[in-house]
Recover the amino acids of this structure.
C-alpha cells in the first residue's frame, strides 16, 4: 500500500486536513468519508486507482480538521460549502467526486449545484442525506438544543490503550479489526494516560432540521455528470425503498451492487477499484 502525503487546506472559515495519493497531474478526485470516519477511509482503495490524484478530506469535526465553532450544529447542508471551499483551495476548476455514506450524500449535492465543474461523481453506500417524518421536526429540534446545552456536562469515553478503542469501534459498527484500526488511528488522540476521540461529539447530535424528500430529489435532478453508485449487498441503501426514486432522478446514473456491507471500499477494495478506475479514467 502506497504512503499518502498529508495536506492542510486553509479555507475562509476552517482548516481542513487531507490525505493525498497519486501523481500531481492525475485525474483530480476529491473524496469524502462517512459519518464519524475520516480520510483514512480511502487508504485501501486509493492505491488501486492508477492515474488518479485523490485528495481525501477530513470533514469538519472529523480526523484532523477543525471542528465547527462552539455552539454550532453540524447541519448536512453546511458540509457542501466546506467541500466547495476545499476544491477552491486546491485550485481545481473541474474535478471528480467520490463519497462514502455521509460523503456520498454530500457529493451528490455538490454535483447538483456545480454542474459546470464536476466531471464525474461516484458514491459508495450514500446518495443524498437521511430524511425524517416532518411531524418529528419539533421533537428533533428540542432534542438537539437539549444535547447542545448538556454538552459541558458530558464526559467523553476514554480508553486505556489503542486496542480498546479499536475494539469499541468494531463493536459499534461491525467493521473488521483491520478496517477499524485504519480509521481509529486517525480518529484517536492521547488524553492523560489513555486515549479519547478527536471526533467532535456534536456530530452525534440529532439533526435540528432535516430536508424533505422533495427537496432532496430536486438536487438529484440537477446532477448532469456521469454518476456511479456502489452499494453493498448487506449495506444500508439496498434496504431503503425510497432510494429508488432518487436513482430515477439522476440522468446518467449506473448502480452496482457488490458483496459486503457498508464499507466495501475499506473491507474489500478491489471490486470497488475495478469499477472506479475506468469510471474516473473515462473523464481524463
Amino acid at each position: 500500500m502506497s504512503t499518502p502525503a498529508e495536506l492542510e487546506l486553509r479555507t475562509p472559515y476552517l482548516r481542513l486536513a487531507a490525505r493525498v495519493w497519486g501523481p500531481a497531474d492525475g485525474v483530480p478526485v476529491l473524496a469524502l468519508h462517512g459519518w464519524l470516519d475520516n480520510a483514512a477511509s480511502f487508504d485501501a482503495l486509493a492505491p488501486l486507482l492508477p492515474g488518479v490524484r485523490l485528495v481525501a478530506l477530513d470533514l469538519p469535526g472529523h480526523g484532523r480538521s477543525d471542528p465547527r465553532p462552539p455552539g454550532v450544529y453540524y447541519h448536512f447542508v453546511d458540509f457542501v460549502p466546506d467541500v466547495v471551499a476545499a476544491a477552491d483551495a486546491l485550485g481545481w476548476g473541474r474535478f471528480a467526486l467520490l463519497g462514502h455514506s455521509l460523503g456520498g450524500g454530500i457529493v451528490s449535492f455538490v454535483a447538483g449545484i456545480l454542474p459546470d465543474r464536476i466531471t464525474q461523481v461516484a458514491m459508495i453506500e450514500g446518495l443524498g442525506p437521511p430524511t425524517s417524518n416532518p411531524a418529528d421536526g419539533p421533537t428533533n429540534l428540542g432534542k438537539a438544543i437539549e444535547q447542545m446545552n448538556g454538552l459541558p456536562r458530558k464526559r467523553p469515553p476514554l480508553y486505556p490503550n489503542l486496542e480498546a478503542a479499536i475494539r469499541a469501534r468494531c463493536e459499534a459498527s461491525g467493521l473488521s479489526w483491520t478496517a477499524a484500526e485504519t480509521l481509529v488511528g486517525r480518529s484517536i488522540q492521547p488524553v492523560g494516560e489513555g486515549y479519547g476521540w478527536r471526533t467532535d461529539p456534536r456530530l452525534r447530535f440529532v439533526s435540528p432540521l432535516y430536508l424533505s424528500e422533495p427537496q432532496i430529489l430536486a438536487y438529484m435532478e440537477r446532477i448532469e455528470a456521469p454518476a456511479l453508485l456502489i452499494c453493498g449487498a448487506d449495506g444500508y441503501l439496498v434496504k431503503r425503498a425510497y432510494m429508488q426514486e432518487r436513482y430515477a432522478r439522476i440522468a446518467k446514473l449506473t448502480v452496482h451492487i457488490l458483496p459486503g456491507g457498508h464499507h466495501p471500499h475499506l473491507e474489500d477494495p478491489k471490486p470497488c477499484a475495478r469499477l472506479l478506475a475506468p469510471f474516473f479514467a473515462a473523464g481524463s
User: Anything to note?
Assistant: The chain has nine helices and ten strands. The chain has one domain: 5-140+212-281. The longest strand covers residues 15-21. The chain has a mean pLDDT of 95.
